[in-house]
Amino acid sequence: MEKVKIGVIGLGRLGMVHADHLVNLVSEADVKAVCALDQSQLDYAKKNFGVNTYTDYKEMIDTEDIDAVVIVTPTGFHPEMTTYALNAGKHVFCEKPVGLHLDEGVREMEAAIQAHPELTFQLGFMRRYDASYRHAKELVDNGKIGDIIYIRAYGIDPISGMESFTKFATDNDSGGIFVDMCIHDIDLIRWYTGKEPVQTWSLGNNIAAPQLEAIGEYETGVATLKFANGMVATLIGGRHAAHGNQVEMEIMGSNGWIRIAQEPEKDFVTLFTEAGVVRPSMQSFAERFEQAFINELKDFIHRVQTKQPGSVTMEDGIRALLIAEACKKSAETGELVKIG
Ligand code: NAD
């Protein structure tokens, strides 16, 4: 099979990771060009990946002989870039979330995807490609824990990432804690249960990072989701974990429970010193989900080669955004918000 020729748009915290994986670890991908606004990122990519560089994504798409684009720019750009690339005949892998608001280009993006069934579109909810979350999915689907009663999810970035997050959220609108961060767990809850929540009561605070108030962000966001059958989920998203990247989930069923990755241990090393017995922990999402990020790109490339639609769809992205926006509204108004 022919390799898939790729252009990567965005080379920041995650874009450089994706570009590196595509160049070095995804053998069926051939990265031809990259696009970013930051010259030092472009210089790094040119030197290390041997690719052409652009600051204008339309010029890259129009000029380069590429089959697909991987979009890793700030969220507000996802709708226009996806729409442009599809209309130019390119397959698209787009990072989560699909956009900042449902009424800002997201419907046009959906229409472009529907207008091009011959092109593969895949969304970057990479936790679905993590081995532990996949194992849990198999257990749920095989009825090992019975009917789901309650789900508890934590998604808390390390405090060591606060500076780079603050830059990200200052330069561009992140969408806020629910749209930017909790949306991963919202997607997983939909994936595990096959159900949509009908109501949320959400709250946020900035106790751990009062400086985020100035850029309209909550450092911590907590959401309770109610489902039509009475099932409940609670999510907490944050950016304050002192020890590392804390991502965990518990799924309680009528017949048993599943708990996923409750401690972010870096590896099998335990350090015995005067400080005590210490298990070093993972310090970033890129470290925790390294294999998932690689797996999702490998699968996207395979789907392009075999002319299949993406595994994580625009519908998944829109549903998750709808829920995250309801959580945001509830936290901002202090009210119970109906979803959908
Ligand atoms: P970032 O701010 O670190 O990097 C953004 C990159 O996009 C930079 O290279 C910048 O130069 C480039 N860019 C900005 N505007 C551009 C434009 N108009 N044209 C071309 N390039 C442009 O952002 P990030 O943290 O890497 O996040 C990017 C996206 O990835 C966001 O949507 C975010 O939600 C998502 N993300 C997902 C995960 C995950 O776990 N799946 C993790 C981090 C980020």
UniProtKB/TrEMBL annotation:
<comment type="similarity">
    <text>Belongs to the Gfo/Idh/MocA family.</text>
</comment>
<dbReference type="Pfam" id="PF01408">
    <property type="entry name" value="GFO_IDH_MocA"/>
</dbReference>
<keyword id="KW-0560">Oxidoreductase</keyword>
<protein>
    <submittedName>
        <fullName>Myo-inositol 2-dehydrogenase</fullName>
    </submittedName>
</protein>
<dbReference type="InterPro" id="IPR000683">
    <property type="entry name" value="Gfo/Idh/MocA-like_OxRdtase_N"/>
</dbReference>
<feature type="domain" description="Gfo/Idh/MocA-like oxidoreductase N-terminal">
    <location>
        <begin position="4"/>
        <end position="116"/>
    </location>
</feature>
<dbReference type="Pfam" id="PF02894">
    <property type="entry name" value="GFO_IDH_MocA_C"/>
</dbReference>
<dbReference type="InterPro" id="IPR004104">
    <property type="entry name" value="Gfo/Idh/MocA-like_OxRdtase_C"/>
</dbReference>
<dbReference type="InterPro" id="IPR036291">
    <property type="entry name" value="NAD(P)-bd_dom_sf"/>
</dbReference>
<feature type="domain" description="Gfo/Idh/MocA-like oxidoreductase C-terminal">
    <location>
        <begin position="137"/>
        <end position="339"/>
    </location>
</feature>
